[in-house]
Amino acid sequence: MTSVQLLPVETLANVFSLCSYIDLLSVSAVCRVWKIIVESDPCLRVQTFKSTGNDIEGQTSLINPTPVHEIIQIHPVIMKVSYRMGDELASAGFPCENPSTAQLRPLSDLAVSADFATIPAITSMNIEVKRPSCTCCRPTILSFIVGVQNISGIRVLDIFSALAKE
């Protein structure tokens, strides 16, 4: 038995709470015990966008409207999804590991699509979509607003569903 295996679960959870989202994914892959800790600890579930925090004893719902001064963290996977405006939702996805194929793994087929899109979870957001455009050497920015709502907390897939409807 290694010295790390002798540490109490609470201590490991406290150490893991210092990790970023990406690091927590790596921690989960180390061994079955660490995966269980990351998936079952209420604070780590919030940090991995799996929970709103309602299951943390004595904490108020994170689904409530977020005060203006509170920092909202966007799920890192949102910036990695490949999607072209005007396409169907099914076209949103991730490039396959094999660079020789041009296929995407559809976002809707992946578990991450059900993760909350933000920490804390929010129920309504407006996304400004900007498109650069050039008219006779005078660049202009065309933009429009897309509203996203989910009373249970906006999920990653909700964002791309709203974009596909635009």
3D architecture notes:
This protein is of the alpha+beta class. The protein has two domains: 1-48, no CATH class; 61-165, no CATH class. Helices cover 25% and strands 20% of the residues. It contains five helices and six strands; from the N terminus they run ααααββββββα. The strands form three sheets. It has a two-stranded antiparallel sheet with strand order 1-4. A two-stranded antiparallel ribbon has the order 2-3. Strands 5-6 form a two-stranded antiparallel ribbon. The longest helix has 10 residues, at 156-165.
Structure in a nutshell:
The protein is α+β, with helices and mostly antiparallel strands and 166 residues long. The protein is built from five helices and six strands, in the order ααααββββββα. The strands form three sheets. A two-stranded antiparallel sheet has the order 1-4. A two-stranded antiparallel ribbon has the order 2-3.
